[in-house]
Every structure is written in structure tokens, then in C-alpha cells.
Amino acid sequence: MSRHESYITKDGAFHFIHRQKGGRCEVLRYRRLDYTDQNVSFLCDAITDHLTPDLISHQVRRAYPAGHPAWKRDLFGYCVPASFALLYFLDTDALVPFRGIDMGGEGHWWLADRNNGRRYDITGCQYTEAERNGVYASGRPRGYYGRGEAPAARFLRLMNRVQPESELFVTDGPGLSGYVRQPRGRI
Fold it and tell me: Is 91 inside a domain boundary?
């Protein structure tokens, strides 16, 4: 099961999600939202509106060079950052990340509610209904594949775009007490 909550802490009204990078820590101070239909809808739309090519992993770019037929699908390559941004934004333990395999052999990610099975697939519209059903049939619960399931920097960038009042910064360590903000370079 996903260990994503181990990277999130709360202090007052704010949540902090962190990731280690060398001896330093990249941190996003943000507000998680209650798990309601209204907030899910808002976040799905906002996340979709802020998807940009820099959020697609280097691994996907290497596996699918320019001109590959997969790039003809809208939202190809965005399922991981979109799904995990939604997961980190919603203040609930009911959501589980799932990964299935599409007809081209590429992994596809979405979230599912462990209580009622409802799926939240922000980028699922890139598939026909039949293709989506095939992907879902192959799906299994999975934690993020990053080292120790730590969030990727691209997730934090996306979340910062979706919630512009959030603050993205670098510190010398992950502890909440005494975050010392350092000038942030590219995260």
C-alpha cells in the first residue's frame, strides 16, 4: 500500500510535504482539502488546467520519443503527476493509487476509494471506454515508484501551480520546527 502520508506533516492550518534531495529538503507548504465531491471536482479541473510538458517524466520521454503514436493521445504522460497531486491534496486515507497497463504496454495511474471503489482518473479521457476498462481490469494498488515512495519534484511544482498561495522552498532538513528557507533554485 502507498506510504505517501509519511511525507506529509501538519502544523496549524498548513500541511507540509517534503522530499529529500541530497542533504537538503524540498518542501511545499500548502492546504489540504477535505475529501468531498466538490473538492475532488475542483482539484481535477485545476490539475488538468496546470499540466505542462515539464511534468512528464524523463523515463516516459526516453521510452516514447517524439513522433511515437502515444503522443497523439491527449494527456499521455501526465497520469502520474496528476494522480499523485490529487492524492496529496485530499485530506483522507480512503484513496489508494492504482496502476494498470494500457494497450501499448505503458503503465497508467489513477486513484480509487478503498471504501466504495469509485475511481478518480484525471487523464483517463485519453482512452476510449473499452480501452479504459482494459486498463482498469489490469490495475493493482501501488505506491509511487520513487525512492521510498517519496514525492517527485514535479508533483510539488504542479501542486504549487494549482494552489498559488502555497509556498515551495528548500531547507536543510525536514523537521517542522525551524524550517529555514533557503533560496530555491529549480525544484
Answer: yes
